[in-house]
UniProtKB/TrEMBL annotation:
It comes from Yanghanlia caeni. Its EC number is 2.7.1.31. Keywords: Kinase, Transferase. Transmembrane segments: none annotated. InterPro entries: Glyc_kinase_flavodox-like_fold, Glycerate_kinase, Glycerate_kinase_RE-like, Glycerate_kinase_sf. It is an enzyme of class 2 (transferase). The keyword Transferase applies. Belongs to the glycerate kinase type-1 family. This is Glycerate kinase. GO terms for molecular function: glycerate kinase activity. Pfam families: Gly_kinase (PF02595). PANTHER family: GLYCERATE KINASE.
Length: 387
């Protein structure tokens, strides 16, 4: 009896925002592959680029442990936030778990007072667990405080010219007179931070945290100008204390400038989010001997090239000569540029005109069916070489 030829497929997608997690997308695609090729060896590897959903993707791919803590959200309310323990003294923290915009209803969003204090509380939880390496995913923040709240949670004291502690939020930073590091948690001296980012914006200026990301957090044009000047003043004081000027470092404008304080005072490096998560998930190991790769995200267009998951997965696959099929909820303007980045073919999963609600509700079935069809086509095209 002849055995079916070996057929290895790696399924490494991002989430479909507001519809399916990366793990759910990977499960649906894997099901479709197996419908077309029951003999296939399918490796499901949920991915992310450092933004929302990164914690779920990392835990699904690594088998890490989900832990929970009660911390402050961006406007100071107690909330339950998750973080990941990956073993080997490594913790993964998604900042949006504590200070995410989606936690705050539009009517309560306060861009001048929103704080990253809760993110600092999660870092303390990780240190208490024995972490000496903290991987921090940026994205989806409600804050524009340059990480001042995180700094305060870790023990730094920010005070005004009367010696009073600064209240939360980026809007208060214009009153900063000095920084006292005496009570900063001493364990931080032996902690390595790796910051996952998918943007290269600096802290201040026309491409900075306030100008580019402030409006989506509820900041008015006047708020944006005020926050930008407050961040610039905060940075000036930080440089005087730390002796390190990180104001123009690419990525310090991500997540309301959260990475700025970490880069200024701790052992830290910025890395493209998809590359860092690919390393944690051991994407390269999974790709060894693969015949085909599936990736995808909710919408793909020219912007996907700028650090998003499908482009990152394609780079790794292309280095090994493996074809890549990308599935998306929709394909936007300029998606064809992905072909130069290593995507072999890209498809929208929608079967025709559908409402957004219908697309969300049927996303798993649509992904399964499109993956099945693509796998059947690939097998038909490769049959002469595989017999």
């Amino acid at each position: 009896m002849m055995r079916a030829p070996r057929f290895k497929v790696v399924v490494a997608p991002d989430s479909f925002k507001e519809s399916l997690s990366a793990a759910q997308v990977a499960a649906a695609i894997s099901e479709g592959v197996r419908l077309a090729a029951p003999h296939a060896e399918v490796h499901s590897l949920p991915m992310a680029d450092g933004g929302e959903g990164s914690l779920d993707a990392v835990l699904a791919a690594t088998g890490g442990e989900r832990r929970r803590a009660t911390v402050r959200d961006a406007i100071g309310r107690n909330c339950e936030a998750a973080w990941g323990w990956l073993g080997e003294h490594t913790a993964f923290i998604e900042m949006a778990e504590a200070a995410g915009l989606e936690r705050i209803t539009p009517g309560l969003r306060d861009p001048l007072r929103a704080s990253t204090f809760g993110v600092g509380q999660l870092v303390l939880q990780a240190l208490d667990a024995g972490a000496r390496r903290v991987v921090l995913g940026l994205g989806g923040s409600a804050t524009t405080d340059a990480g001042a709240g995180l700094f305060q949670a870790l023990g730094a004291r920010l005070f005004d010219d009367e010696g009073a502690d600064l209240p939360p939020g980026g809007g208060a930073l214009h009153r900063l007179a000095g920084i006292d590091l005496y009570h900063l948690d001493p364990r931080l001296a032996d902690t390595q931070f790796e910051i996952a980012v998918d943007v290269d914006n600096p802290l201040c200026g026309e491409r900075g945290a306030a100008a580019i990301f402030g409006p989506q957090k509820g900041a008015s044009p006047a708020d944006v100008d005020f926050l930008d000047s407050a961040l610039a003043h905060f940075a000036q004081v930080c440089v005087a204390v730390s002796g390190r000027d990180e104001t123009k470092t690419p990525g310090t404008g991500a997540a309301g400038g959260l990475g700025f304080v970490i880069k200024s005072f701790f052992q830290a490096q910025f890395r493209p989010g998809v590359e860092l998560i690919a390393e944690l998930a051991r994407l390269d190991d999974a790709l060894e001997g693969a015949d085909l790769v599936f990736t995808g995200e909710g919408r793909m267009d020219r912007q996907t090239l700028l650090g998003k998951t499908p482009a990152g997965v394609a780079r790794h696959a292309r280095a090994r000569g493996i074809p890549v099929i990308a599935l998306a909820g929709s394909l936007g303007e300029g998606y064809e540029a992905l072909y130069e980045a290593g995507i072999t073919a890209a498809f929208s999963v929608a079967p025709g005109p559908v409402t957004l609600q219908q697309a969300f509700a049927e996303a798993a079935a649509l992904l399964r069916d499109r993956a099945r069809d693509c796998t059947r086509l690939w097998l038909a095209g490769s049959e002469p070489q595989r017999t």
